[in-house]
Amino acid sequence: MKFLRTVFILSSITFMGCCTSDKVEPLKAGTYSGVFNVKYGSESYSGKTSLTFENARFSSTSGQNRFPAGGSGVYTISNDKIVFTDQNFWTADFDWGLILSGTYTYSFDGKRLTLKKQGESSSYEYVLEKVSGD
Question: Which residues contact 63 (CB under 8 A, 6 or more apart)?
Answer without folding.
Answer: 36, 47, 48, 49, 70
